[in-house]
Design brief:
The chain is an alpha/beta fold. The chain has helices spanning 14-26, 39-48, 65-72, 85-88, 90-99, 110-127, 140-157, 177-191, 194-201, 237-250, 270-282, 299-304, 331-348, 361-365, 367-376; strands spanning 4-9, 32-36, 57-59, 75-80, 102-105, 130-132, 163-172, 222-224, 229-233, 260-268, 306-314, 320-327, 357-359, 379-383. The longest helix has 18 residues, at 110-127.
């Protein structure tokens, strides 16, 4: 019997602290621990945060596999915020896959994810470990937004929507220093390896053995004729689209094998919308923001942040369905720390019997995560039209 329900690995980092705070405030009866490289630093952070003095602390280091083995043996699930995952992630996935321990992360790094699928999917299936990547802003609201839209379509029309659009209608908040560092590591790898670059641009990089139809590029501004609104490329689309297609594959293609998905952001109508869209397309959203890994916005900035997403498509008969997904905190931190925790709670509770493997959110969580996010995490899923 595991000593802990959840261990937060990387609990001294910015996002790790937010996860610890959320667990402490939301789940007082949970058996959980904080883990990181330094016991002294963990104790310092615990005391700074005003957490109980008996909050368990676990020393573990990515460069010491034995310490990771010892850590995962003590818990049912590990939440890891230690990135870039390309640099630090694999030893923990290996340990969890070998021991049958559940794992959730914030990875937005496709090269890391396809490596983990290739190396550990079979082992995780064998041991029952659920290795769930991308359990933050990328990609839960998008993956579950598409899933929620398709559930509504099946209810109304008895069939999925073949072509789906994801649209960011509004977003207030910043990317984390960790997200920027992850983006840089991914690009560094891609620049040195044409095969990595080829996979990086493919929507089907995470669906080994399946190549679907040609997908919309989503890399150039245009006026979306369905809404009369200009759209611009969205920085997270290259991650989210891959996860949405992996979900479709893992669920047995309920969206169809001819499914297409395009994700962009609305910038407005007319000349002003066009100018903003062109400005976004030329900018580098991952350019040095000055935010280093482990740093992030103030509590006020997190609490006044928000996002508003829309998912839409039309039926074979031309009827349009629109659903909205909204979050009441900044996407990169406030909302992400809650999603990550609720994903872990879901594995422990509602989907405790789901089979193992290297997974995405929709196939393993389904309606359970939607319910949890709406109940506890300030995220709403609404059928709008």
């Amino acid at each position: 019997m595991a000593e802990f329900d959840i261990i937060i690995y990387g609990a001294t980092g910015f996002t790790g602290r937010l996860v610890a705070e959320y667990i402490h405030n939301t789940y007082p009866d949970l058996a959980w621990a904080m883990a990181g490289r330094s016991g002294a630093k963990l104790a310092q952070v615990r005391d700074e945060m005003g957490l109980p003095a008996d909050t368990p602390l676990v020393e573990a280091d990515a460069s010491d596999p034995a310490s990771l083995d010892a850590m995962v043996a003590r818990t049912k699930c590990v939440i890891t915020t230690v990135g870039p995952y390309l640099l630090y992630g694999e030893p923990l996935v290996a340990a969890c896959a070998a021991s049958g321990t559940d794992y959730v992360d914030l990875s937005g790094e496709p090269p890391f994810m396809w490596d983990m699928i290739e190396k550990y999917d079979a082992k995780a299936k064998e041991t029952g470990a659920r290795i769930v990547h991308s359990c933050g802003f990328d990609s839960i609201p998008f993956d579950m937004g598409v899933w929620f839209l398709q559930q509504e379509a099946k209810k109304r029309f008895g069939a999925p929507l073949k072509d789906v659009k994801g649209r960011v209608r509004g977003m207030k908040g910043t990317f984390s220093g960790g997200t920027a560092a992850s983006g840089k590591e991914t690009m560094k790898l891609a620049m040195g390896d044409p095969e990595v670059m080829k996979k990086l641009v493919s929507s089907f990089a995470l669906t080994p053995g399946f190549e679907g139809p040609k997908q919309p590029y989503g890399n150039k501004p245009y006026e979306d004729a369905d809404f009369g609104i200009w759209v611009a490329p969205f920085v997270m689309a290259s991650i989210n689209t891959k996860n949405v297609h992996r979900s479709n594959l893992l669920m047995g293609h309920p969206y169809g094998t001819d499914f297409t998905y395009e994700e962009m952001m609305f910038t407005g109508k007319g000349e002003k919308g066009e100018a903003i869209a062109n400005g976004i397309a030329k900018s580098d959203p991952m350019a040095d923001s000055g935010v280093k890994p482990g740093e992030g916005p103030s509590k006020e900035e997190r609490e006044t942040g928000s996002y508003d997403l829309m998912f839409t498509g039309t039926s074979a008969g031309g009827e349009r369905v629109i659903v909205g997904v909204k979050g009441d905190r900044d996407p990169g931190y406030g909302s992400t720390s809650k999603m990550l925790t609720e994903a872990a709670m879901c594995l422990l509770n509602e989907v405790a019997d789901a089979p193992g493997g290297v997974l995405t959110s929709a196939p393993v969580f389904g309606q359970a995560i939607v319910d949890r996010l709406q109940k506890s995490a300030g995220i709403t899923f609404t059928v709008e039209a």
